[in-house]
Amino acid sequence: MCLGIPGCIVSIDNADDLVATVDVSGVRRQINISCIVDEAHPVESCVGDWVLVHVGFAMSRINAAEAAETLRLLQELGELQAELETMQTLTDAVAAEE
Fold first, then answer.
1. What's the mean per-residue pLDDT of the chain?
2. Of 14, 5, 8, which Cα lies nearest the Cα of 47?
3. Domain boundaries, the chain
4. What is the CATH T-level fold of the domain 5-62, as seen in this structure?
């Protein structure tokens, strides 16, 4: 399963190499934008775009509402994971006492 994380392109770092900086929930990193650039949407027009980032590549453009909903769901999944880990810890502790 591939997981794309929403991020907003904040700058073009190298137009020739199609490298941009994306902000993902306050964390900035460089990514490759070759998958989202074409004649209708050149490099210069990518700043401000919301994109799904996977292994250092912007895989597709998404709108701001899709980005917000995806980030919300990912946060909920993280909270669920924390709950499951807590439950497992408690289960392990009870089993160790038996």
1. 90
2. 8
3. 5-62, 63-98
4. SH3 type barrels. (2.30.30)
